[in-house]
Amino acid sequence: MKCERCGKSFDETKQDYCGFCRTVHNKNGEAVRDLKGILGYITDRFGREIILDKRRTDALIADFFPKETSARRLCYVALYDGCAQKLYAVREKPFEVRCAAAARCIKSLRDEIGLKGRVAADVVEAVGCAVGCEISFKKSEALPASETEAKKNITDPAEQYSLGRHFDRIREYEKALYWFESAALQDHGEAEYYMGSYRLEGRGGIQNLDQAREWFVRGAENGVAQAEYMVGYFHAEGISCEVDEDKAFQCFLNAAKKGCAEAINMVALCYENGVHTEKNLELAKKWRRQLGDNTEPIMPPSENEAPKLPDPDVETPKQLPDDGEELYQSARRCLAEKDAEGAALFYKRAAETGHARAQCSYGKCLYTGNGVPKDPAEAFRWFKTAADSNLNIAQYNLGVMYLKGVYVPKDLTEAKQWFDKAAKNGHEDAAKILKKLK
What we know:
By secondary structure, this protein is mostly helical. Helices cover 61% and strands 0% of the residues. Helix 1 packs parallel to helix 6 and helix 8 (157-169) crosses helix 16.
């Protein structure tokens, strides 16, 4: 028989594995490399109940399939999570009972262990088949972003928008669209602007100009300058609406006042060429001068007076959320993919921007040595920084450090103070510890 893996020949009458690469083959001459085949091979040789002995099963897989390390890790996780015992107990039960047990196994693997939904389903199906509990799941269609990413139960629109920006940056447009829409449906202005852009360009789904205009209008109503500029563009070109030059110019002007560079340029062009408004070269020059620095709100100058400097008491328009939150969400993605070092790196970068949750998370990495060397002193510093921002979990962590005497001397009074602050900010565990200490 010729080995499917290395191409060498071996005598299948004497052994069922290749003597060169140790790849096991089934009776049809196919290499056994997937989890279902591996467990099937073990149970065929040693009986189904061998799967219930997780240590023995793990040893057999390591012995017969030393090359299949990824499959072995998945099996190890499933067996130690009790999937075999749970499914073996219901193997003779009605189909609905078996399905319910399998669903609980999948949820446990996905939520507690961190496996992705499709991988967890494959593992449970393989273990179920090995112990005689026939379970199969429909996995012919690719799971949408809502199944693979939204199981994190993220409901805050700002976090949803930040996830959308993250996936937009790495060009995973379907996932980005999912998160932008989730945030936009909660009236998040910047997310509404991105929904308009996605529908206009057809990214992540189907192009729909009517929907694009609706999202831009909603974003403009929420004060997003770029969205208002796009509403003006739609009125100027007559896209999904009648051509209305007055409305177009008014939208451009409003967006320019909020510091939108494209709108400032468009207003200058309108005055230079007499498009959508009367030609006025003086005003065009004055608006052109604003393009050098558009970080402050700009008031349109009148014809008879010099341009006014920005009023320092007037609140500047908020920029689109970027670095801190996006870096924080990138760290969370790394953590979901078991990349502790990458997560620590992104947490640190986000923490340096002043992101309180990232500061606390990076402090935890330093405290536990997860992704970075242990450094209680630095952990304390980051916890203190986040706690000063009134983050309850950081205040709780400081209480724990004072209570245990980690880096700082044991100080029950100081610990109580931090637990009290955390409890007042809604941290339940801090409130429980505080009661015990009193």
